[in-house]
Amino acid sequence: MAASVRNVTAQDDVKALPIDARHKRRIEVVENLFAYSFVQPSFKAPHKSDLFESIIPKIPEIDVKIVEFAPKFPIDRLSKIDLAILRLAIYELMVCPSEPIKVIINEAVELAKELGGEKSYTFINGVLGKLIPHDTTK
Prior knowledge:
This protein has one domain (about 20-35, about 45-130): NusB-like (N-utilizing Substance Protein B Homolog, Chain A), CATH 1.10.940. Helices cover about 60% and strands about 0% of the residues. It has helices spanning about 10-15, 20-35, 50-55, 60-70, 80-95, 100-115, 120-130.
């Protein structure tokens, strides 16, 4: 007897795994930051988020760090989704570090794999890798 083989898609995998509440919150913040990058003056966030509201006033200093650690990629030329992921991760790393560094970077890489382009995750990982101190045992 031949065993029946079911064609499993990535969509099936997503449905099978519950989304961690922190991951879901980060996705919503990235979506807000993405939308904000298009309509700043009159922006109304689609997802209510204190984290998002805390990031907005820090964007100028976060962007300085992005420019410093990714000098070949001007802010206005970056993919808007990559920019949103970087803004969230840099905020979490530098302004409000509530999670271990490795967790924040891993989460940013995972968001880039889910939401970004084909090479977004390597770009995000590279920028964040330059940003943090090399001794991450703390």
